[in-house]
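User: Can you predict the 3D structure for this chain?
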Amino acid sequence: MKNRNSRQPALHLPRARDYKLPQGFVFGASTSAYQVEGAAFEGGRGESVWEPFLRNPKRSYDLGDVTCDHYNRYREDVGLMKAMGLDAYRFSISWPRVMPNGEGKVNEIGLDFYDRLVDELLEAGIDPYVTLYHWDLPLMLQKRYHGWFHRETALAFADYSALMVRRLGDRVKKWATLNEPEVIIAGYISDGMAPGMNLPRSGHRVGHHLLLGHALGTQAMRAARSDIECGIVLNLVPIDPVDPQNEKQCAAARDRWTLSYSWYLDAMLKGNYPDLVHDALSRSDSGNPVRPLDMSLIAQKLDFLGINYYTRFLVNEKGDIVETPNVPRTQMGWEMVPDSFTKMLIDLEREYEMPPVYITENGAALDDTLSGGRVNDRHRIKYLDEHIGAVARAIKGGADVRGYFAWSLMDNLEWPLGFAKTFGLIHVDRSTLNRTVKDSGLWYAKTIARNRRS
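Assistant: Here is the predicted structure, written as structure tokens:
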């Protein structure tokens, strides 16, 4: 695999190891539409909640107008994926690109783009894994219904889901509804993410409507085609007490885990919310949103669960996060704890009747620089090696993990944090948009080849 520069320095990469993963294990990489596509005002795309949010005159943000220009450069990007030997590419659909108002009129130009992308991937021998919603809500749904604050958006999401399966379901077989409900909620309880509604008591209300959207979307997709698999993607952060012998800290850790993360799993895999969440819903802005039959719909079968893992939290007696001093951290300030990854995956298997799991995101934002046509990012290689190893240990411990997707394929727009936080296996020059596969991407290619078992 070659980068753009014709004269390459000699590469001495860390050795790729055999993790003894099961036959058929999938290696891929992930992106999301708003973070990489660009072409924000091309081809009939409607506005999302991110256009006005990032253009707030009171703040200075990088914009998503161009990002990596994946919309126009997807063929080049698929060529790089093929050269890396990826089994699969996980990407999201831009809802406002295919339905500019979020409901009603369909944009054929936007649909054609995803047709071409899927066909290009399949021609390259790469399986498409589609996520329908990765935070880029059509602006009109925000204006009309206040987004996920009201259930009408969940109904619109079901129509959108059916549209996409009818269009791509003959070729795309893995469909995730939502990516990271917890982060979507952040845009409602605070003003740090779009749409920035800043309603602190709205979190579980919004979360319920997101789960309802997942459920209605799944139902609509299955009605459209019976030969697809449907799931959802959750970010899960293990929460541990600073002192495991301190009962108050242990209780605070359990409560925070319940209120932040496991309540989604309880709803989908056990059919009910925990008491702490029922209490929070009763105090929600505009009242408890749960209606009869909602929970049985939310608890319909999952074909798979996507898990995004980046770090773990330590908490004190009050449930406040306490930082561990003198430990390695990413650009995001996240502690690197691969052993917590293993433990979480095994614990989930013991707690729930789990569907098959895919690690849909895992990676690290770390400082790296293009120099002499090369990005020598051995720190990222170490991170990936340790976390793929953590997955392998979890599988040996009984977790049914079927695949691993690195976040992310390329350096992209990290939402309000802009372009400074670099997660990619591929470096993207911000002035020219030229792509250069980093050493971590070259190492990942060798790792995939070493672990491939057909």
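DSSP finds 15 helices and twelve strands in the chain. The chain has a mean pLDDT of 96.
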